[in-house]
Amino acid sequence: MCELMYGLEFDERVLKEWQKLGDTIKTQFKKRLAKVLYTRLTSKYTSVGACCTRP
Known about the structure:
Elements: H1 12-20, H2 23-47
């Protein structure tokens, strides 16, 4: 399994709303976002027969 790092840039208005959220909601959102990104990345690589590897 590969480990990937992503950065997320917030619109200033959205960042203010994000900061208002509780830690539980933030954690759930981060887990879901990671799952979606991982699923898209792995499906992209498996569709062309490549493997998810770090250069």
